[in-house]
Amino acid sequence: MLLDIEAIKKLLPHRDPFLLIDKILELTPTHVVGVKHVLPTEDYFRGHFPGNPVMPGVLQVEAMAQVGGVLVLKTVPDPENYLTYFLKIEDAKFKNMVLPGDTIIFVLDLLEPIRRGLCRMRGTAYVNDKVVMQADMLAQIIKKP
Question: pTM for the complete prediction?
Answer without folding.
Answer: 0.96
